[in-house]
Write a structure and sequence with these properties.
The protein folds into three domains: 3-321, Beta-galactosidase, Chain A, domain 5 (Distorted Sandwich); 336-452 and 473-511 and 526-632, Alpha-Beta Barrel (TIM Barrel); 648-727, Immunoglobulin-like (Sandwich), CATH 2.60.40. 19% of the residues lie in helices and 29% in strands. It contains 13 helices and 39 strands. Strands 6, 7, 8, 9, 11, 12, 14, 15, 19 and 20 form a ten-stranded antiparallel β-sheet that branches. Helix 11 runs parallel beside helix 12. It is globular, with a radius of gyration of 27 Å. The structure holds alpha-D-galactopyranose.
Length: 728
Amino acid sequence: MSIKFNQTTKSITLHTKHTSYQMKIGNLDYLLHLYYGPTIRDADMGYQIMQYDRGFSGNPYESRNARTFSLDAQPQEFTTQQQGDFRTTSIEVVNGDGSYSYNGKAVDFKITKGKYQLDTLPCVFANDEDTVDTLEVTLLDTISNVQIILLYSVFEEADIITRAVKVKNLGEKSIHLKKIMSVCLDFLNGANFDLVSLPGRYGQERQVERQKMTHHIHTIGSVRGSSSHQQNPFVILCDRNATEDYGNCYGFSLMYSGNFLTEVELDQYDQLRLVMGIHPKQFVYEVKPQEVFEGPEVVMAFTEYGFTGLSHLYHDFYRSNLCKSKFVKDVQRPVLINSWEAAFMDFDDVKLVNIAKAAKKMGVDLLVMDDGWFGKRDDDNSGLGDWVVNEKKIKCGLHKLVEQINDLDMKFGIWFEPEMVSEDSDLYRAHPEWAMQIPGRHAVRSRNQMALDMSRKDVQDYLIEKVNAILDNANIFYVKWDINRSLADIWSNNLPADKQGEVYHRYILGLYRVMDAIIKTHPDILFEGCSGGGGRYDAAMLHYYPQYWVSDNNHPIDRLKLHYGTSFVYPISSMGAHISDSGRLVPLKTKAVVAMCGTFGYELDATHLSEEEQKLCKEQSELFRKYYHIIFDGDYYRLTNPFEIGNMTAWQHVTKDKSESLLSVVVTNLTCNGPQEYIHAKGLEPNAMYTINDSKEAYSGSALMNAGIPINREVPEYTAFQFHLQKQ
Ligand code: GLA
């Protein structure tokens, strides 16, 4: 068992292969957090907590005259509310009697084999070969009768611990949750932490930012109704001196696609508290007597081996325990061509077939028909919601079009944006009440479209029926699921006035229900998520889709940063990356090298390419297939940081057995008559010999890692190099 209870000290320790996590049923039965970090074997960490009389920090009444116990200075697994802890909280609840307070004490715990489940939200899962144990601790506030169930699953081999929270109302009146955080992690000494997050914007998602923790609450979150382009539900807490290769790093990845919040507070005593969960903005959730509310899962990891060590833990875990699609492990992803940047909405069946014919010559396996094939959709002002083929454009009908593509020995894919509706659509005309709009006010427009009220079951059922009807009517291999605006006008016509604070979360629950229903009935379809590029790229989405479109920004030099940032947590196999016309000064080969740090494909009009270019593309598609196992199943290393001024950006994939590696370099800047530059490989076997691109000579892993590979600097700007290292 990876979870141990010590009867004498009342501590519970969670052990993964290299880490330990400890808590204790402490003073007055509060559940105290004792430790998370490198393994501590059977040590009891209770000795770490010192008690002092802390002025202006309240003491629980039961402490009587002992003034040294204050929740304001205790590390906790789940906080109280209004009990003398003035730091940020796990919970804000309005009890049945109108009081704002929570005082949960540990009343029970159990340890079981296997992974816990959530009924309403996506979770990671255990495979047969995984050793997974679960701890469930129950806290009870005996005055309000509100029960908190804290769930922990320990993935021993993977060095991963997941957490989630359930709130059960055992009282006789409804309670209203205004804040419920899935994780609370307290560090007794937090003065030397940095926080790393992935902020961005449309076209520049997941750029990397690192900040020193100072004495206030640092917040990372989204209130856009989606996890957003602007922030990502993933953060790292690391030592101030942590680097790519060394230093303590804690990762927190939230499995949720809606409004989220991470708060990191460095308090008056240099203690650090991190909480993460659903954003409390406009969140008031009623939990009726006997009902249970579930908060989303947080996937936590710890390593002493810097950002690379942490990324490897997440990449490995998310490649095996997050998404059940057969495309994750068993079936190779196709090389695709997408019609968007080739034709936007100006296409018909003939044009698509011509693009496919040209793409076939480029070694492409799959044609994706993007936006514009349905309803009345010649621009982005109309048609969303009418998921019926526009036979003025697809004159032969969808079935026949797919047949023509299949006859070329290619597969066919299609685009949807199910959550949205245009005012100029048959759906809106028939059901204006399905669009979110605050009564008496005009809706906020964004790309001239409105969001459907995904909290409604009738809307969910409509979408399941319409999307399935298309998928069942033709031989569809791939679906791109898009959403192209942030949510505003949060209102559901289906809910009474006092339940409008539930709409943001109910939207996400409805979305998950629709996705689940469509994906489960189409296990053979490859799904790719998208939100105006990479606007909702989060772990929950990757539970449903094995891949996600990184960004609408296809410029290969910008992509270096986009791929770098995304790779901190999400595996390379999840990163949708294409070659497009963007970046006209950048050679086609460089674009291909960059797109090979992802799912690889094209986003251009293949009929416009010369025969020579088509031939080069074919070679690149073949190389992608040749290197697929290194890129998709190997370990990924960031060799340089594209956010720092330098002349080249480099990264590397290494197979798990270290027998092969693909090292890629893009020259982004050349200084006149500058020094020779060397790229240092990582992750090789030091004593093994490797050839480079079938060279006659072989070089030791140690030489390649310590002395590096010299990069020829007498090359045009934006030249790319790809070194295939083969162990002898
Ligand atoms: C979004 C996507 C693009 C494309 C368009 C279609 O912007 O990110 O790839 O699908 O929508 O409208």
